[in-house]
Amino acid sequence: MTSQNPQPDLTAQSAGLLSVDELTTLVTGGEITAVMVGVPDMMGRLKGKILDSVHFLAQLPAGPAMCAYVLASDVDMNTAGGFGLAGWHTGYGDLHVVPDQKAIRRLSYLPGTVLVLGDVENPDGTAVDVAPRRMLREQLRVLLARHQVEVRVGVESEFVLYQGTEAQIRDAGYQGMTPASPHNLDYALEHPTVLRAFFHDLRDALAQAGSPVEAVKTEGAAGQVEVTWPYGDPVRACDAYAVHKHAVRHIAAHHGMTSTFMAAPQTGVGSGLHLHVSLWRDGVPVFTPRSHGELPDLLHHSVAGLLGALPHLAPLYAPTTNSYKRYAARSFAPTNFTWGVDNRTCAVRVAVHRENTRLEVRLAGADANPYLALAAVVAAISHGLTGHPKLPEPVIGDAYTDVDSLPVPRTLDEALTDFRENHIARHAFGEEVLDHYARAAEIEIAAERGQVTDIDRERGFLRA
């Protein structure tokens, strides 16, 4: 779980980041020779180019061009029709990357290399509305303009580590994988040697990259790890998560392990991406309970908005067919849209800690794009602050037994239908964004439909 202190820590967020002047000095001195310029794709993975450092500096403030299909393809980067942004009908032209000069990070696990996050623009200089970073910024802008509140976020990441290299696991057909730890080590302070070394290197790498962690711990499943960061700026929090995924994969490989951010990598194992959110106005948190302990109206409206809008935005925080296999009873992943005070069986958990009170949204899985998941959360809160939908009673006890609340979608097909047809999604994000991510969901569904699985053979090979 993330910190009980949502006070924005801007110092922690900037420590370790390089200015352009500092980067220039390192390049001149020969310490930095390569610059990776990356943008988050629809899955939240960093895509881009590795530039010669001198060439990169000479281009600033411009960055490289990038084929628009990086924001209009499937998980395997296959070209696919149906996207307005890019396709054979557009000739697969370029987008321009604008480097974020406040997001230059040194990568300790790739010597001589820095990573610079960027934003994409159309050739005419206009914004690309379907770009994840842009979508989050737009929802934050709308929330501030309409309600004069800002968002602060703490991110909680879960993933699973397995023994063996990516090649070894792939060659074995992803069968018989051995977790990096033998059993449930939740909250353990004694870890296998390989995990201790991995934790050390990951903490060090993220600190040097300007994304220092708050805590690292082993989780409830064998090989499962949780990483949390201090509260801060929403876009920077998502940037930190994107860098974290990049670092985890490289550092795991260095230690002879493979990481996965699947929502449900094995039957009975689920990894989440929990978003801890608080609202601020003029530098003051607005979720602080009143003197007699009553929760403020802004918090109630925010929770009501989350419960009212998130059921219709699922493809933004549960984007794959595998995402929905995480939602299982007694799994600590929610199965219905409920809320409660310090109740981890609910979709929205209110963590009450005086001025540090926050909302923990537990719906997104580890496979979610953090920018899109948080954009959905912010849009839902804005919906609540605007319309004041009715707030149901909080759940006390086991929310898995609640039969009156709306259930979480069982499949991506079900989620897609609601996403397309509900006015909340269309009003919040607009026609272009809705159609773009609906098409992405269609492609994901089609990739699985018709595939014969191990379960099919096990249940039917000798019995049909």
Brief account:
Helix content is 34%, strand content 19%.
Characterize the structure shown.
By secondary structure, the chain is α+β, with helices and mostly antiparallel strands. It has two domains: 17-128, Ubiquitin-like (UB roll) (Roll); 138-451, Creatine Kinase, Chain A, domain 2, CATH 3.30.590.10. The chain is 34% helix and 19% strand. It is built from 13 helices and 15 strands. Strands 7, 8, 9, 10, 11, 12, 13, 14 and 15 form a nine-stranded mixed β-sheet that branches. Strands 1, 2, 3, 4, 5 and 6 form a six-stranded mixed β-sheet that branches. A hairpin with a 5-residue loop joins strand 8 (215-218) and strand 9. The relative contact order is 0.13.
Secondary-structure topology with pairs:
Layout: H1 10-14, E1 17-18, H2 20-28, E2 34-40, E3 46-52, H3 53-59, E4 65-67, E5 94-106, E6 113-121, H4 132-147, E7 150-163, H5 166-171, H6 193-208, E8 215-218, E9 224-228, H7 234-254, E10 257-260, E11 273-281, E12 284-285, H8 297-309, H9 314-317, E13 339-341, E14 348-351, E15 358-361, H10 370-387, H11 412-421, H12 423-448, H13 454-460
Parallel strand pairs: 2-6, 13-14
Antiparallel strand pairs: 1-5, 2-3, 4-5, 5-6, 7-9, 7-10, 7-11, 8-9, 11-12, 11-15, 14-15
Helix pairs in contact: 4-10, 6-7, 8-10, 11-12
